[in-house]
Amino acid sequence: MKLLTKSAIVLAVLAALLSFVKFDHCRNFGWGTPDVYVHACYSDLPALLVDRGMINHTWPYASATNAVEYPPVTGIVMWATSFVVKNNFAQYRAYFDFNALLIALIFIGAVLLLKRMKPEFWYLFPIAPAVIASLYINWDIWAVISALGAIHYFDRKKYWPSSILLGVSVATKFFPIVLLLPIALIFFRRREIQTLVKYFALTLATWLIINLPFILTTPVGWFRFFKLNSERGADWGSIWEALAIFGKGVNHLNLFSILLFLVGATAYSILFLGIKKIPTLAATAFFVVAIFVTASKVYSPQYIIWLTPLAVLALVDKRDRIDFWIWQGAELIYHFAIWQYLATVTGTHFAISGPAYAVATLIRIAALFWFSARLMRKSTPEIDPQTAAFLSSASSGYA
Q1: Alpha helices in the chain (DSSP H)
Q2: C-alpha dihedral (177, 180, 181, 185), degrees to nearest 10
Q3: How many domains does the chain have?
Q4: In which domain, by residue range, is 335 found?
Q5: DSSP string of 38-83, one letter each residue
Q6: In terms of pTM, does the model score above 0.85?
Q7: pLDDT at 82
Q8: Structural Rg of the chain based on CA atoms
Q9: What pLDDT score was predicted for residue 399?
Q10: 3-state secondary structure of 119
Q11: pLDDT below 70 — which residues of the chain?
């Protein structure tokens, strides 16, 4: 094994262990509120063990009202891992520990894959503080590694494994579906429309093969994921919730959330089509996911696990690392702000107020916009002067 590979494994293991330490208070003293928020060790892993009936090994999509709010791959992981837990006083801790072990192993795999894809900057992923703070909140890393694999194979023009992995990723966590936008633009720029159609068809076929058994056997439980997302209001971490806290709530939120994403996606597409040299999927995936999470009705702390490896792939030179750390700092501020605000909501009297939490949310959003604009500026010599001027003013205006 090469020294660099060994170093990547060691660094990923250390990051996984450090993250585990952050959650250790809850492992030892339980996941009760407000303690779980005060110590910033909340995790969906033990919470959903009970809330979604996993503790009784209930089929994750059996209930019309209490099915798991995730696509099938995540639901099956939640259900299958419940069988390793004995029904005793330590079952929550055991369930957390076993899932955390799997998450750590997948995280190590994601770091190794990222090292192969971006050998000059891969190390930023395992040492990113917001990533370390969020690793065991949810099962998101399961979708991240398959999405990274899809990007890796796509840029090597191995479209069939790429499309299959993307289908698996979307069937694990729905967010990777937005990667179809830059994929479509790349194929369009290359005038490979037939290949585009085949790629989309195989991605859809893979997603259907995974989802169809659930659609046919437990359609209402399977559909609950989509139902909850369509019905939810302005939720934690979103720009919409921050506006609501300041008394500027938005009616018809679904419409405005979709419109904001469409506006951002259209602007992104215009910029993409204006670049003289066709960029890689690795270099552009970060931007469309950043648009998606900004427009979304919720921004959970673990979303940083989606964004960080894509940001690493989008870095151009060593100077970008400063911008990366500034952005990570804003994410870390938000990470602790949401838990302290939730501590206030659940009864603690010494945490932060709603307006303070909303400010932290807006700081996070502004930092993400600024960081994205700074990265986009790297392409300004290759695009039209008006677009270059806009990107320059956007990024310098927040500097």
Answers
A1: 3-22, 24-29, 35-38, 44-51, 72-81, 91-117, 124-127, 129-134, 141-155, 159-170, 180-190, 193-217, 219-231, 239-245, 253-274, 281-295, 304-314, 320-345, 354-377, 385-398
A2: 170
A3: 1
A4: 3-398
A5: HTT---HHHHHHHHTSGGGT--TTS-TTT--SS-HHHHHHHHHHGG
A6: yes
A7: 93
A8: 21
A9: 43
A10: coil
A11: 1, 88-89, 379-399
